[in-house]
Design brief:
alpha/beta; Spore Coat Polysaccharide Biosynthesis Protein SpsA, Chain A; eight-stranded mixed sheet; five-stranded mixed sheet; about 30% helix; about 30% strand
Length: about 350
């Protein structure tokens, strides 16, 4: 019997975020390799989660991670039931069923997937022969008792290792058997790696949204959820936030709900005077349910007054929060309109979204 230990206890020091919990296409990152391990027929899966952040995950057993990767591996392997254990980093989220089965079927006490570097390799002041270099991947299949003994020896000696093959070689003198890995089985380490994975798992679509409101005295003016004026505002059933309306309209239309007026009708008393952040939150929820992720916003606001220079930061921050989008992916431009529409506000929105790939 082969068990699997999926490591999801990392602190995300290099990526700047606990990447295993980042949602892409409606799924957390660790859920991608988890589904592959199950599809490959492994019934005993142990998910290692951060200390103090345990949660129930259907169909798997969970254990708490340790201070170092090696400690997290030990905690997971100790809970495993199989004679052999596949240890996999959740950061290698593009795992394939084929690779898992190849490792299960291979002979040896320590089986490690690896690929050769496609680029020249410069190390310690000189170029080295890249044909003699292997880039080691996970999952790594090890005999459970062998790994447990190697860990105890390393722990007693205060030695740390970065993977199972090096641990067992260093402590037990047992060299790994290398099998062909897969270049698509790359490790998500930096933000750019996350973007590559997102593009692999999602199809990208560009949407257009537009909204226009007449400006009247006696109402506050809200844009992107930020109050930018007190003495005049947008005429509308809700608060008339044209920025949020344009983005919401584009998303609702793409999801097949029609326009914003269909979902949040101006004849429905529930929406009278409501802040448009409510519309944005509900639309974001509907998108998440369908595996749709907002990737970029490019907004143009046409408005005579007030000047928006002093409000842009707060508006971008609010859009970032509402649509779970990094602020650097939001472009907000303000145009005066040269007096063409002095008593109105217009907003043009280009919305780029990713949709979870099927299968």
């Amino acid at each position: 019997m082969v068990s699997a230990v999926l490591l999801a206890a990392g602190r995300g020091r290099r990526a700047g975020v606990r990447k295993q919990f980042v949602r892409i296409g409606g799924r957390r990152l660790y859920e991608y390799p988890l589904s592959v391990l199950r599809e490959a027929g492994i019934e005993d899966v142990i998910l290692v989660l951060p200390e103090g952040e345990m949660e129930d995950v259907e169909g798997v057993r969970t254990v708490e991670g340790g201070a170092e990767r090696m400690d997290s591996v030990f905690n997971g392997v100790r809970a495993a039931r199989g004679e052999y254990v596949l240890v996999h980093d959740s950061a290698r989220a593009n795992l394939s069923v084929g690779l898992v089965r190849r490792l299960i079927e291979a002979e040896g006490d320590v089986v490690v997937p690896a690929v050769r570097p496609p680029d020249s390799v410069f190390y310690a002041g000189r170029y080295i022969n890249r044909d003699e270099v292997l880039l080691v991947q996970t999952p790594q299949r090890v005999r459970r008792t062998l790994l447990m003994e190697a860990y105890e020896r390393a722990k007693a000696g205060g030695r740390l290792y970065t993977d199972e093959g090096s641990l067992i070689l260093g402590e037990m003198g047992v060299a790994p058997k290398f099998v062909e890995g897969e270049r698509w089985n790359f490790k998500i380490t930096y933000p750019s790696d996350m973007e590559v994975f997102r593009r692999l798992k999602m199809s990208v679509h560009t949407l257009f949204g537009y909204d226009v409101h007449r400006l009247v005295p006696g109402r506050p003016l809200y844009l992107a959820g930020v109050k930018v004026a007190d003495d005049f505002g947008a005429l509308g059933h809700s608060d008339g936030d044209a920025v949020l309306h344009a983005v919401v309209d584009a998303l609702l239309s793409f999801m097949g709900f029609g326009d914003i007026g269909t979902v949040f009708s101006d004849t429905d008393a529930r929406w009278e005077g409501v802040r448009s952040e409510v519309f944005a939150a509900e639309t974001a929820r509907l998108a998440e349910e369908r595996g749709i992720e907002v990737l970029r916003l490019d907004l143009t606001v046409v408005l005579e007054r007030p000047k928006l220079r002093g409000f842009k930061g707060a508006m971008i921050e609010n859009l970032s929060r509402l649509f779970n989008l990094p602020s650097e992916r939001i472009s907000l431009k303000a145009k005066s309109g040269n007096g063409l529409h002095p008593n109105s506000i217009q907003v043009f929105a280009i919305v780029e979204v990713g949709v979870a790939a099927s299968g």
